[in-house]
Specification:
Blueprint lengths: L1 H17 L1 H6 L4 H37 L2 H7 L4 H4 L1 H38 L7 E8 L3 E9 L4 E11 L5 E13 L4 E12 L5 E12 L20 H14 L4 H28 L6 H28 L5 H22 L3
Antiparallel strand pairs: 1-2, 2-3, 3-4, 4-5, 5-6
Helix pairs in contact: 1-3, 3-6, 3-8, 3-9, 6-8, 7-8, 8-9, 8-10, 9-10
Length: 345
Amino acid sequence: MGSLIMLTGVLLISVLMDNMKTFVASQQKSYHIALFLLYSIPKMVVVVASPSLMFSVCFIVGQFSVNKELVSIMAAGVSFYRAVSSLFLFGFFMWFFVLFFSEFIMRPANRMAGNEQAIILKGIGNKTDLTYQVHLRGAEGFYYVYWYDNELKKIRGGFNYIKINQRNFPELVISANSALYRPETNDWLMEKVEEIQFDEDLKVESFKTHASKVYNLPENADYFAKPVKTPEQMNFLELTDEIQIRKNKGMPYGELEVERQSIFANPMMCLIVVVIGAISGTFTKRSAGISSLAITIGIVIVYYVLFSASRSLGENGGIPAPIAVWFTPFLFSLICLYMYKKFNL
């Protein structure tokens, strides 16, 4: 608990310092800043849970080693693994605790923190609900939207629509400077429009320009809206639904699949670090605190470098999402198995 509180405090100070310029510049009330930091704490707890366990277990076992208590325990006929079995059981418990904590507490808290951050950013004139330069697949064709303002329900900077016939050939191309969705009539008012009509042989049948024109399209404004939640704010079911929505729109969904796999992969590290920490603690000869800290820093740095690299590849489609997420836990599981077999204490 001491390690958990200390490391969470360090992360809290880091987030505060990183966002200090934004906090000072924002014209919003200060309680939004306090709420943002408060709602960010569950995420910090999940992030530091594994390093805290690693340091604590390594330190405790190291203390037993330094004080020769491990020698006394094993001299009494109790094996090392029997002596530390309660630590392994606790690591197994923490695996599932972090899984449920992140799913039912951290992710809702992330959404509330995101809402407070959006309010803070609006205080300095920044909007967080803009959809910028996206290609989408609709029910009858394809869209290209330069940017969409969800608050005004208006597309600006460029709107392009290609309607596809049953032969999967374009039959209508609409290009407009802007498009305003009118919910009362469920249509789009477009300005500075170019309209091209094709025949069955893909020859231009007509080319027209309009200062403004109203179109009835299959999709309404909500189709172009930015998702309300970011991947780390969605639970497993929400991620599954959003992946299907993006598939239907023809949008990339790699980061969502990676996040869905991470729900189960990240908590597994709690058990891995307990096993590694317990065995590593037996090699402590002098100062348990310094040795435990050094081992923890080394293991955590290697883990997060490997995990971040593979996760980035998975999000960008370089490797399949399951491999990207599970490669590092699987590698460290093999290390645990090797240490368990090699050091038969």
